[in-house]
Design brief:
By secondary structure, the protein is of the alpha+beta class. It has 4 helices and 3 strands. Strands 1-2-3 form a 3-stranded mixed beta sheet. Strand 2 and strand 3 form a beta hairpin. The longest helix has 29 residues.
């Protein structure tokens, strides 16, 4: 299911400031996202939370995709194959789990 994209509307900074409650209402309804211009130059975007959440998810996916090749290269330089890397990750998970949950039970 494709997420519905809101309509882009450009407004001036003075209008945004003067009618801020209306601006918030417009983006909250997710019918519009607003580009705020000052002296004809785009300076900000005001978007609804659903669009912001989608952007944050997209950004995290992009960062994760770029991380894979970096980790693969570091593992290769360290002389690790995929099995070594998986073992190392599992050991790290166990150590972190122990650290987090043993500290929680000591309280």
């Amino acid at each position: 299911m494709k997420a519905q994209t809101s309509l882009q509307v450009t407004i001036g900074a003075t209008e945004a400031r003067t009618h801020f409650a209306d601006v918030l209402r417009r983006v909250h309804r997710s019918k519009e996202h607003l580009i705020v211009e000052k002296a004809g130059i785009p300076v900000a975007a005001i978007i609804g939370m659903s669009e912001y959440d989608r952007f944050q998810r997209w950004l995290a996916e992009q960062e994760l995709r770029s991380l894979g090749p970096v980790l693969a290269e570091r593992a290769r330089l360290a002389g690790m194959d995929e099995a070594d890397l998986a073992t190392s990750l599992q050991e790290d998970r166990k150590a972190i789990y122990q650290e987090v949950y043993s500290a929680a039970t000591e309280k």
